[in-house]
Amino acid sequence: MRFSALKILKEALTGHKGWQPMWRDPVPQAEYDYVIVGGGGHGLATAYYLAKEFGQARIAVLEKGYLGGGNVGRNTTIIRSNYLLDGNEPFYEFSLKLWEGLEQDFNFNAMVSQRGILNLIHTDAARDAATRRGNAMLLNGADAELLTRDQVRAMYPWLNFDNARFPIKGGLLQRRGGTVRHDAVAWGYARGADMRGVDLIQNCEVTGLRIEGGRIRGVDTTRGHIGARKVGVAVAGSSGKVMSYAGMRLPIESHVLQAFVSEGLKPFIDGVMTFGAGHFYVSQSDKGGLVFGGDIDGYNSYAQRGNLPVIEDVIEGGMALMPAIGRARLLRTWGGIMDMSMDGSPIIDKTHVDGLYFNGGWCYGGFKATPASGWCFAHLLARDEPHKTAAAYRFDRFLRGAMIDEKGQGAQPNLH
Amino acid sequence: MIINHPILGPRDAAEFVYLGDAALINRPDGMTASVETFHDYLYLRDNPAGEHRELWYHEQGDRSWLVVTRNTVTHEITKVELARDVARAQGRSK
Ligand SMILES: Cc1cc2nc3c(=O)[nH]c(=O)nc-3n(C[C@H](O)[C@H](O)[C@H](O)COP(=O)(O)OP(=O)(O)OC[C@H]3O[C@@H](n4cnc5c(N)ncnc54)[C@H](O)[C@@H]3O)c2cc1C
């Protein structure tokens, strides 16, 4: 379905009876060339680019619930490319460039808002680290600016600059970072894929992978068997469960991450900001709510809800940074299941089964990766070789000792 | 979540640090195990949705390691043991 000002006017005058569903609700075919498991951001983007950029046909996306009901609709919507390591930064910068052209590309308003992301600096050591990170970003063609304390003060005068323990000494700013309307990303990719003939099949849970002689033949689902030449799995928090159907154990644990929204307030934060001393980050939505979050709860979970100690910890971080929010009321909290990998970086790779491919390990940062993840996974599925920006995201990096560990925490998923 | 500590009784989970799957107790012998065995031990996880036996360390308490049996879908805790007892029952002496 297409939208236009004329159409809105016409519908307004005729009782809104002419709107059509945005995509078809097809019956699954007996067989496809490509079956994508998981109708989140990554699965939908993969199908979209497979059809559009790689010219592939007979594609289906199988989603156990409804499209966009997973993490793509639960995250805090931040996009950025402020990574340090070589394995990561080119990929995330590729993603940011795709975000910049996305709305024109899929002709849908995803409210991509490059309002800037500011990482605050509280110590001299943190300034050194931020300088190094900024330089790594510049070397990879991204933008980065090191701000002095006065420059930060000019942006956000009400921050707690003179906190005795964690004074604010500056910041690393990426102006091209920002936020995107998360649901609209799922909808835009879904509509674009559907228009190119991709079958989006909802309420269809994959319950088994049919493998014969080391080759994938199809998937068993709650809507029957569906044959496939190639199967790409992009199920985020459910990665361990789905890949166990192929007998695989993954370098991944599933953890719960919570997010929070306050009541609507007048505009006072126009960008995204992160506290550098505790784990707290915040932006303000267009409706006025403060959208914020912090650490994962830290224990294995598939519950999509967290516990109170982390809520207390996140709010304490917020109060330390910006005491002004003390009287704002919390409106909602919720949780999503993260596919936390052993080095905090993702995997986009083939498996030991011919025709079975895996995309996961996105931790709490996979929303910003959605366009590049879809593009690179489509590239791998169509051409059987990794895209150059995703070449490091291999399963065997742990065996080769080639971890991409941005935080230097080692094989401890709840610390990444 | 409340962890019913075998020695100290019910304690808030926030007093503990979480390590992960209790299978980590079974570390392969560093002198004889292959690189692949160590890779699997260190990096690969069962990550089940449902019952999970896991290691919790009582950092803000008596500093004991516990093996907690907990459901990862409901967060319900059904069993708490001292990791020491679990390891000894598996034939570990130290
Ligand atoms: C609270 C929170 C805040 C976050 N904040 C940010 C942020 O600010 N910036 C950022 O970059 N990232 C953020 N993230 C991370 C980001 O949301 C995820 O990494 C990303 O959305 C994961 O990819 P996805 O969209 O494909 O996942 P999902 O939307 O979860 O898609 C996976 C889909 O697979 C389906 N599925 C599972 N099992 C099966 C099966 N057996 N058969 C069929 N379908 C199945 C699920 O129903 C789901 O729809 C956040 C996450 C959370 C929870």
Could you explain the architecture of this structure?
The complex is a heterodimer of chains A (416) and B (94). The longest helix of chain A is centred in the N-terminal third of the chain and has 18 residues, at 89-106. In chain A, strands 1, 2, 8, 9, 10, 11, 17 and 18 form an eight-stranded mixed beta sheet that branches. Chain A has ten helices and 18 strands. In chain A, helix 2 packs parallel to helix 6 and helix 3 crosses helix 9. Chain A has helices at 5-13, 41-52, 89-106, 124-139, 149-155, 182-195, 239-244, 308-321, 370-383, 397-400, and strands at 31-37, 59-62, 78-79, 117-121, 145-148, 170-174, 178-179, 199-201, 206-212, 215-221, 224-233, 252-264, 272-275, 280-284, 289-300, 330-341, 347-350, 356-360. By secondary structure, chain B is of the alpha+beta class. Chain B has one domain (2-89): 2-Layer Sandwich (Folate-binding fold), CATH 3.30.2270. The N and C termini of chain B lie far apart (30 Å). The chains are: A alpha/beta (416), B alpha+beta (94). Flavin-adenine dinucleotide binds next to helix 2 and strand 12 of chain A.
What is the third-level CATH name, the topology of the largest domain in chain A? FAD/NAD(P)-binding domain
Largest sheet of chain B: 4 strands, antiparallel
How many structural domains of chain A?
A: 2
The helix tally of chain A amounts to 10
Q: Provide mean pLDDT of chain A, rounded.
A: 96
